[in-house]
Design brief:
alpha/beta, Rossmann fold, 2 domains, 3-stranded parallel sheet, 3-stranded antiparallel sheet, 8 helices, 12 strands, about 30% helix
Length: about 300
């Protein structure tokens, strides 16, 4: 094994779909091509969004597609103490503050206006914790492996929530804490998360955490121009080998890897062996989105 450590980190709000497969497959191939580790983390910090059995379905789907991970599965619901320690460190640097404001109150603004930065507006209300994006690292720059140089001012994106009013941890804080704890060197994920990276870079810098490389992938869109997602009722990935073979081949083609047509009906393991040997990020066209085919959107029984 090399020093490369990648991960796939789905939220168990439902079964994986074709868009999820693209992210998982690219992350898996990127790690395996260089003999690296590929880890699985279930991001279940939002229990109301995680129906019973969804995580088990995700694990079965990955295994059915031959996407086998290294080591035990990480579960975010076990990480409360680590997130609390990170928030306390941000508070000590005056980079996090309590906020009583609701989205309804600031709905006429493009981002949260920072009303509670200098004191809670309504102390009797439940409080969230926000990042002082104006006081962190600015600007934030990084070299995306597909979309090249990125430069953002996080303050223009607003003060993101780190801990919600209901006491649940927010994605931005949890993801940077866990990526560092697991020694992640490379993050491969969808383009929809590219503009989350500035906040994550700010948090990494403030907490003294390692900064992984990033590869953001073009999104797969449905017929209405929406990102394939569980909310948009994207069909679940199959677990039947006969359905998996052509779908895996289409996923490789969507990633611009040009798999031979002779592999279209080959077992998943054979397709993955070929894909690992031929994986080339430079083949991927740097487009923010591309349409799904009718076959990608066909209903499957998980």
């Amino acid at each position: 094994m090399t020093g490369y450590r990648g991960r796939f980190a789905p939220t168990p709000s439902g079964a994986l779909h074709f868009g999820s497969l693209i992210a998982a497959l690219a992350s898996f191939l990127d790690a395996r091509r260089v003999g690296g580790h590929w880890l699985l983390r279930i991001e279940d910090i939002d229990p109301p969004r995680c129906p019973p059995g969804a995580a088990d379905t995700i694990l079965r789907q990955l295994e059915a597609f031959g996407l086998h991970w290294d080591g035990p599965t990480r579960w975010q619901h076990d990480r409360d103490e680590a997130y609390a320690a990170a928030l306390e460190r941000l508070r000590s640097q005056d980079l996090a503050y309590p906020c009583s404001c609701s989205r309804k109150q600031w709905r006429d603004f493009p981002t949260y206006p920072g009303w509670c930065r200098h004191g809670v507006q309504e102390p009797d209300k439940p409080l969230a914790w926000r990042l002082r994006s104006d006081k962190g690292l600015r600007p934030v720059t990084w070299q995306d492996r597909l979309f090249n140089t990125q430069r953002f001012d996080p303050a223009a994106l607003g003060d993101v929530v780190l801990k919600r009013k209901d006491g649940l941890w927010a994605y931005q804080l949890a993801v940077v804490v866990d990526d560092d704890d697991q020694g992640i060197t490379d993050v491969v994920r969808g383009f929809d998360l590219l503009d989350n990276t500035p906040w994550q870079r700010q948090l990494q810098h403030a907490l003294g955490l390692a900064e992984p490389r990033y590869l953001h992938l073009p999104l797969v869109m449905n017929r209405d121009g929406q990102k394939l997602s569980k909310q948009n009722l994207a069909p679940a990935l199959p677990e039947d080998e006969r359905a998996i073979r052509p779908l895996l081949h289409r996923a490789l083609a969507t990633l611009d890897q040009a798999p031979p047509e002779t592999l279209a009906l080959a077992p998943a393991a054979e397709q993955l062996d070929w894909a690992i040997a031929h994986w080339d990020v430079d083949r991927i066209r740097p487009e923010a989105a591309r349409p799904a085919t009718d076959a990608d959107m066909a209903a499957h029984t998980p």
